[in-house]
Amino acid sequence: MSTTKPRKATQVAEHLGRLLASGHWPLGTRLPAERQLAEQLAVSRPSVREALQQLISKGMLESRVGGGTYVLSSKPIGFSDPLLTLFRENPEYRFDVLEIRHALEGNAAWYAALRSTDEDKERIRVCFEQMLAVHGDPDPMQEARADASFHLAIVEGSHNLVLLHVMRSLFDLLQNSISHNLDKLYTQPRVFEPLSQQHRELMEAVLAGEPERARQAAEQHLAFVEDSLKSIDADEARKLRSLRHLSR
Q1: What are 71's strand-pairing partners?
Q2: Where are the domains of the chain?
Q3: CA atoms within 13 A on the CB side of 174
Q4: Is domain 82-247 in CATH 3.90.190.20, yes or no?
Q5: Region 8-71: CATH code
Q6: Is residue 11 helix, strand or coil?
Q7: 39-69: per-residue pLDDT in tens?
Q8: Are 40 and 46 spatial neighbours (Cβ–Cβ below 8 Å)?
Q9: 118: burial class by Cβ within 10 Å (0-12, 13-18, 19+)?
Q10: Half-sphere CA count of 55, side-chain side, radius 13 A
Q11: pLDDT, tens digit, 9 for 90 and up, residues 52-111
Q12: Is the Cα dihedral 180, 182, 188, 191 positive or negative?
């Protein structure tokens, strides 16, 4: 019985997919150029280009005109995903995710303050600076992805692989189901300024090796995010009621 060897582009896509799943490139990271990837993998540029398109179609990568290719998710996102379907049908369930993040990220920050290496700390600093750099970008989801990368860098510093896998999945779920609210967190000065202060406090606590301070910073930050999202929901509900009243 004969077997058909997978096309080169498919093999490249599978290899890159494994790298994405392992966290080789964190969320929001720009991938190397096609030419560089082709040289690294010893394949043709057309094979790399087709492989990238396969991953883009799966929701793992995002291509920006004149801006390269960026990591959007560490796993394929499909409409058949039961949790993603659930969230799209009822966005209120996203607050369940925030409750889980309260439990997980406080511990992650604690362990990151104890275990993070110099390399981990440098990655956390870089991710923090990237958040500030993309503020005001025409696409607010740029900032949302930079935010996720910052938090995941702290989870990586905890050196708990199970926790890291769970947190990547949660961020994938959040960013692919409620982007219409996540982006608004970064376009309102009343929200952005406290967020920046909270992120800085979290970073400094981890870099200083102060676990309890880091845990408190993470938990206070998430409480603020939850309150802000609920406030945004309330504002949208009031606007909707007002529009309905005017249309009568």
Answers
A1: 61
A2: 8-71, 82-247
A3: 26
A4: no
A5: 1.10.10.10
A6: helix
A7: 999 999 988 998 998 888 777 888 876 678 9
A8: no
A9: exposed
A10: 30
A11: 988 887 778 888 766 789 887 777 654 345 666 666 556 666 677 778 888 899 999 999
A12: positive
Taking Cα atoms as reference points, which of 66, 64, 78, 71 lies closest to residue 27? 71
Handedness of CA 160, 161, 166, 167 (dihedral sign): positive
Could you give the 3-state DSSP secondary structure of residue 63? strand
Angle subtended at Cα 219 by Cα 213 and Cα 225, rounded to the nearest 5 degrees = 135
Point out which residues pair with 69 in neighbouring strands.
63
Tokens of 16: 């890159």
- Show the CA angle centred on residue 20, arms to residues 23 and 151, nearest 5°: 40
Q: Which residue type is seen at 12? A: V
pTM of the model as a whole: 0.62
What DSSP character marks residue 70? E
Instruction: For 162-219, write each residue's pLDDT tens digit.
Output: 888 788 777 766 665 445 455 667 667 777 788 889 999 999 999 999 999 999 999 9
Token duo for residue 97: 């995710």
Q: What is the helix (H) or strand (E) element at residue 168, kind and residue range? A: helix 161-177
Helix (H) or strand (E) holding 62: strand 61-64
